[in-house]
Amino acid sequence: MFIDLRSDTVTFPSQQMREAMCKAEVGDDVFMDDPTVKVLESKAADITGKEAALYVVSGTMGNIAALLSHDIHGFGVMAGRESHIVNYEGGGVSILAGAFCQQINDESGLPLVSDMELTFKADDNVHLASTKLLCLENTHNRRGGMASTVSEMKVCTDWARNKKMFVHLDGARIFNASIACGERVSDYCALVDSVQICLSKGLGAPIGSLICGTRDFIEKARFWRKRIGGGLRQVGIIAAAGIYALDNNIDRIAEDHANAAMVKKMLDDAGIKTLDVARPTNMVYIKIKDASKTNDIISACEEKGVKFTSTAPATYRLVFHLNVCRSEALKAANIIIEEVERIDA
Q1: Before 131, cis peptide (omega within 30)?
Q2: Which of 103, 196, 290, 330 could cross-link to 81 by cystine, CB 3.0-4.6 Å?
Q3: Rounded to an integer, what distance in angstroms lies between the CA atom of residue 212 and that of residue 221?
Q4: DSSP-assigned beta bridge partners for residue 103
């Protein structure tokens, strides 16, 4: 059995979660008569402090359906150069939504007001696609799983409001941010017009995300979900896993953060370079000296039972989750240290 650190999406449902799935009442969700989905959506709306929620199959579908629902066709969408929306969603913001992606520096996890000012395009110039929507990400995957605070996000959202822009939050790992910063999910979500939250990462459900916003916005998103092929039928079976996750797996995310912190310290103490993050969560990024050894280290560690991925030449990402206990995290760290020291000497 591998210690799988490739992502927090590789988790397996617990026996209790499987039992909840087996017992779920179901209906046809396109007809809006699946009772389990209704419970899940209501619970998500309560947690985020929004009026309504919509169940979708993935975070990518959640983000693109939300962006489409902001009527951004022909407009500019401001999003971080390192964001998931820009890098890992197949260009959907342009291909499906017909919007111009105005990429902005987000190396600090959130963009700076000065950079947003330089990127913003007003609607008074016929040569330019005026900026209608700001997209933020919290936690920020490519910035080392960095968590931003409510007050830090508010600087960005206040600026956007002053520009009369809408704001969408890719909150796939917003529960990690909440745990790391000690702040309520609803306080983050109060700053934005729409948010996508993921059930299949730190919360351990096998599938699913939710879009949350006003009732009118969610009705529009329901149309877009159907239009892009996301209409769901007897989906209560998997929605039940999402309910179990929200009820049981939020607080335990702190264990993943603790395991990541332990492994980072072990790597640092061994002289292996890791990315320092202001408010780390469940990720550790490693940098080796010789990029030509990137795949050799991955293969050597996998032979010893530890899986992880390379995000760039000479760079690795380790992601901790509910299927990696303390002893497994310790074992993985020792194997990684041994192989990096042997191969990247």
Answers
A1: no
A2: 103
A3: 10
A4: 79
Convert the pLDDT of each residue in 73-89 to its tens digit.
Answer: 999 999 999 999 999 99
C-alpha separations of 62 from 171, 220, 230 in Å: 10, 13, 10
- Closest CA relative to residue 213, chosen from 70, 111, 89: 70
Which candidate, 278, 296, 258, 238, places its Cα nearest to that of 144?
Answer: 278
Q: Are 20 and 244 in contact (CB under 8 A)?
A: yes
Cα–Cα distance, 153 to 59 (Å, whole number)? 20
What per-residue confidence (pLDDT) applies to 289? Answer: 94
* Helices 253-269, 326-343: inter-axial angle, 10-degree rounding: 30
Task: Name the E strands within the chain.
Answer: 3-4, 52-56, 76-80, 100-104, 131-137, 166-171, 194-198, 209-213, 273-274, 283-287, 306-307, 309-312, 315-319
- Amino acid identity of residue 79, one-letter, is A
Region label for 229, one of left (φ > 0), alpha (ψ between -120 and 50) or beta (otherwise): left
Residue whose pair of structure tokens reads 């520096």 in the numeric block? 105
N residues, the chain:
345
User: Residue 112: what residue type?
Assistant: L
The pTM score is 0.95
Q: 166 forms bridges with which residues in the sheet? A: 133
Sign (positive or negative) of CA dihedral 169, 175, 178, 180: negative
Answer yes or no: is pLDDT of 345 > 80. no
Q: Express each pLDDT in 190-229 by its tens digit.
A: 999 999 999 999 999 999 999 999 999 999 999 999 999 9
E runs forming strands in 81-122? 100-104
Q: Please enumerate in sequence order all residues whose Cβ is within 8 A of that of 268, keeping only pairs 6 or more positions apart, or say none.
A: 274
